[in-house]
Structure formats: C-alpha cells, structure tokens
Amino acid sequence: VHFTEAQEALRCWRKWYDSNYLQLEPLEKGQALVFGSAFHRIKEGYLKDEDIDIEMPPYDADLVPKLFDVWREWYERQDYVHYQVEQPLTIEADSDGTLFTVTPDGLFTDSNGELWIDETKTVGSFDEDRLHLDLQGRVQMLIAKQLGHNVAGVKYTQVRKSNPATARVEVLKEFTIRFPEGALRDAAVTMEYAVR
C-alpha cells in the first residue's frame, strides 16, 4: 500500500475503490495535479541527472520551467551534504505482511549533520499553518524513524504558481517543521485505520 492510496481512501472510499480495484481513470486530471506533477518530474530529472518525459499542463506550460529555474537557483545555494531523490521507505504495516510505502521528494543531511525529509509543494499561496497538519510529512517522518533514521523534521519548499518575472512577492518560501511525537502518533493511528 502506498501512502497516496491510503490518503485517497481516507478522503473518499468510492474514489479509492474506483481507481484501485476497478482501475478507472478520471476523464480529466485536475489542473493543480498536472501542474504539480510536471514541476516534480522536472525537479526529479534534474536531481537524478536524467531525461524524463513530462506531461506539461496546457494552460501554464511556460510557467513550470520558469518556476523550476527559481527552485534550481535556490537549491544550488543550499548546504545539503547528501541528497537522496525519491527513495521509497517501506515498513510492514500489519501482521499479515502488508507493506506500507512512502516516497519523500528527498532525504538530505544538512551541514549540521541533521537528517531531513524534503517536500516541495506547488501552491496558489503560501500557507505554513496547513503544513503543521500535513499528514504526508508526518507519515514520512514516522516511517523514517521506524526504519531507524534519526529524522529532525520536514523541510517544505512551497513554490507559488506565479510568474517570477512579474510577481510582486517571492515565489518560493521554505518552512521547517519538527513534528512532535504526539503528531507522529496521530499519524500512525490514521494510517493504521486507512490500511485496514
């Protein structure tokens, strides 16, 4: 079971059933999903030094590379000592042998020796408050810790969907969140419910 499937099940059982059991595809992908996926694919190709096929959003095809250039300039100024891209983290979810997997955008060690989960989000506007409730980041941190990684927290980079050349405010902002143990326990209970 991958985190995305579990999250989909929590949001809407019918949608989860339709896509995972009936193998139905939506007639149209949401614009935000297509945009975010295109941005992540470009980022992944850059970090892995690979050419990757990318489905560009028809409505904002020129904006994705512009925002990626802003992100790349920001990334090259970071003090990351070691960076792993899209490395799946898998644990046994129950006694039946069901495996549960999360795939953070990245894992990196900073210059202080702390291990972090990296998550990049394309957003309409910056919102740090929502990140404190982010189930994805909490579950990623929980699983990393269960696998023996001493993870300090999640570093979120939000990239605002706005043309960098004409934006009046910044288009990229970083937020660092160290989730407390209680938030990780809540995430564990939520995922246990979703996997069943």
Task: Report how far apart the termini are.
Answer: 10 Å
The overall pLDDT, averaged over residues, is: 83
What low-confidence regions span 5 or more consecutive residues with pLDDT below 50? none
Strand line-up across the major sheet: 1-4-5-6-7
Helix content: 40-55%
Number of strands: 7
Question: How would you describe this protein?
Answer:
- This protein is of the alpha+beta class and 196 residues long.
- Helix content is 41%, strand content 21%.
- The longest helix has 18 residues, at 31-48.
- The chain starts with a helix and ends with a helix.
- The model has no long low-confidence stretch (mean pLDDT 83).
Which SSEs are present, and which pair or pack?
Blueprint: H1 3-11, H2 13-20, H3 31-48, H4 63-76, E1 82-85, E2 89-92, E3 99-102, E4 106-109, E5 115-123, H5 128-131, H6 135-146, E6 151-160, E7 172-177, H7 181-195
Parallel strand pairs: 5-6
Antiparallel strand pairs: 1-4, 2-3, 4-5, 6-7
Question: What descriptors fit this protein?
Answer:
41% helix; 7 strands; 5-stranded mixed β-sheet; alpha+beta; two-stranded antiparallel ribbon
Short structural description:
By secondary structure, the chain is α+β, with helices and mostly antiparallel strands. Helix content is 41%, strand content 21%.
